[in-house]
Amino acid sequence: MNKLRAMVRNAFNRARKAALVTGQNPATDIELRKMPRRAPAFLELHQVPLVLAELSDSDRRLIATALYAGLRKGELFGLRKRDVDIERRLLMVRRSYDRESTKGAREEAVPDRDSVGAISSRSSRSSTWSAALPAAGRRDPDGG
């Protein structure tokens, strides 16, 4: 309900800014509903291999990277080849896919034993990051 209220309020505000409507925004009179905060659900460690076993090879590498490194979707799709240190088994999380910083606005080195190995098995044979993470579907912006 609160999301619907926010969408109506934003649409009305944009329409008013574009001089399509005038007057007070009717959505501002609607009170926000109290919504219970629910704890997020996480996979148990023993469930991860079971989930990965059900995926295709290309999806498995992508999802394994996200799960084992604890990456958000934007951080996962923001990875570039230079962010993967195979020898030290580190992922450098520097950016999101749609902006030059992460949600927390800081760079972090994420130690990652499992997914770096999955990535390195493909990325060393290819010049595109999308070959290592095929679902990303774009060429490596680092040019290599």
Helix content: 25-40%
Biggest sheet record: 3 strands, antiparallel
Text of the CATH class of the largest domain = Mainly Alpha
- Return the structural class: mainly alpha
Strand order of the largest sheet: 1-2-3
Task: Give the overall form.
Answer: elongated
Span between termini? 47 Å
Strand count: 3
Mean pLDDT: 77
Count of DSSP H/I helices: 6
Give the CATH topology of the largest domain.
hpI Integrase, Chain A
The radius of gyration computed from the alpha-carbon positions, rounded to a whole number of angstroms, is: 21 Å
Strand fraction: 5-15%
CATH superfamily of the largest domain: Intergrase catalytic core
CATH architecture of the largest domain: Orthogonal Bundle
Q: Which residues sit in consecutive blocks of at least 5 with pLDDT less than 50? A: 122-144
Q: Topology as H/E string?
A: HHHHEEEHH
- When the domains are counted, the total is 2
